[in-house]
DNA sequence: TTGTACGCGTTATCAG
DNA sequence: CTGATAACGCGTACAA
């Protein structure tokens, strides 16, 4: 007994599909008895409307596509939750896809989303994406686009971002205030704007306080634990190692933590450490990790709101908005 | 310039839709020049086939629906990654949904998946789900179903599970071998089979070693950090506190860690601690957390393989398989 | 080499 | 109160 259509139901009841459709929708005047029979049979056969047929007809899917680099990252899963909470409330479904930071996959996902005729798309760019045609195409297709966190200026669409410069500045400022002098930074990939901005903010804080940033104290890494651990190890083994590290993310800070432990360095006595993103394990680490927090859930909510607004009241040539969230210093014991 | 169809292209080129379709598919003999013109125009207009139309026509969507309780849980996100890796390789899309452990949401998701005519469904049951009609319905609709991790016997479908009894047994056995006597267990919600099985395995290990399990050493909690922290605090404040705790999951173990630190208990000296699931932060905790590992990525892969097998070669009344993974003890320093 | 026509499931319109 | 039919986008069998 495979999936049934209203046509099947109509046939079995010897009535027309139009009547079945009306009965199912409680529309117009359908003879109560007919309605009852239809509804009962539909129930019995587990009838569910075919959303492809409806999508074809109405050109609306009440679905939004969501693309993140990876799900296994608390920052993104919190954003997803914020976004879903708003979307569901407004009767929209969310289709979640992972680009895994692979450009080709990102392109393919966008193609599929267009094919699926989603009503709008929210994306956080993959770190390797350098060509943006697949995204700028969306404007021509009248598909609303909102970028969050990992955005790029040459893409037409709304932007929901953190003030990463400010976050970097706050991190540097706090480390200096706590009396450190040999400040180091483990940056993210240079291709990511957020990496560059956090670095710039950090540098600005040092400049403002007239603290020198030694070239060998500025290194970069990927977000893989192995890499950040190795990078931290190298950094801490310098003849004159830093006395404070600002890690581009909490994930990277975990690598530093491991390296420090291996070298028998006490945090915060021998080394101050500050991360970025406020993972939920942060407070449970030893020592609890000082970090910069990002309002991820709210970012997801705002992303959804702006996207849905654009979907529900489409404007021919909309003006992309930019919404900036201020990160927050969360003081714990690692500094 | 909204989305175009082959009909639009046909009109603009003064040819029939059939020719356009053929040109796009590199089918039969289409005059090279016609083909070129079609492809160029399609490219220019960013034509993408409407998957609703194709789904309607072919009754295949090459999409599988995936339902997890929550994404913000490393165990599940690893399963997702395993499942996706296999699905993509075989040309299938994955639609990911979160039930948030809310029964009504789970039902609604299943309805939507049926409406979307996905080719198959993989699900990990929500912890509050007690009525399984929405899932047993899938059998009648000929939609293949695979359950993973959180399964239930009264649902018809394949099952991919961990041997949770064995995991609990290994945890208890190891704690005893390490010389502990006052063993406690912080269990998960009793509604979850995995909670009951881990507990049973744990009890069996104690029984086999003739170690008593004091009633006050057996408590349960939800998976929320707050709750497990509070529960652990209560446990450790007993007049005679346990000297070893087996936590139903690493998340819960994090709560224990926090409670122990608050009470100035040294792990493993004053208290041995073992978790379950092998979170990636485990090795970075202080002390590195001993745990039971679950092969989550492989579970996702196997889930996908079994599901796709059923999709590609459907059998009228298939015999549900059960695939059991043996958990593994991961020894670190918390015991 | 190309065109016509059908049908997939649904809703809306128009006609009874 | 109910039925017939067109339309959405596509692939394909059949016809030319």
Topology:
The structure is a homodimer.
Chain A (H helix, E strand, L loop, with lengths): L5 H8 L3 H9 L6 H13 L6 H8 L4 E6 L5 H16 L3 E6 L4 H13 L4 E4 L9 H8 L4 E4 L9 E5 L1 H14 L5 E5 L5 H16 L9 E3 L4 H12 L7 E4 L2 H13 L9 E3 L16 E3 L2 H17 L9 E4 L2 E3 L5
Parallel strand pairs in A: 1-2, 1-3, 3-4, 4-5, 5-11, 6-7, 6-8, 8-9
Antiparallel strand pairs in A: 10-12
Helix pairs in contact in A: 1-2, 1-3, 2-3, 5-12, 8-9, 10-11
Chain B binds a DNA duplex (16 and 16 nucleotides) through helix 2 and helix 4.
Task: Give short descriptive properties of this protein.
six-stranded parallel β-sheet; four-stranded parallel β-sheet; 12 strands; alpha/beta; homodimer; DNA-binding; 335 residues; 15% strand
What does this structure look like?
The structure is a homodimer of 335-residue chains. Chain A has helices at 6-13, 17-25, 32-44, 51-58, 74-89, 103-115, 133-140, 164-177, 193-208, 225-236, 250-262, 296-312, and strands at residues 63-68, 93-98, 120-123, 145-148, 158-162, 183-187, 218-220, 244-247, 272-274, 291-293, 322-325, 328-330. By secondary structure, chain A is an alpha/beta fold. In chain A, the strands form 3 sheets. A 6-stranded parallel beta sheet of chain A has the order 2-1-3-4-5-11, with helices on both faces. A 4-stranded parallel beta sheet of chain A has the order 7-6-8-9, sandwiched between helices. In chain A, helix 1 (6-13) crosses helix 2, helix 1 (6-13) crosses helix 3 (32-44) and helix 8 (164-177) runs parallel beside helix 9 (193-208). Chain B binds a DNA duplex (16 and 16 nucleotides) through residues 5-7, 15-19, 21-22, 25, 27-31, 34, 49-50, 52-59.
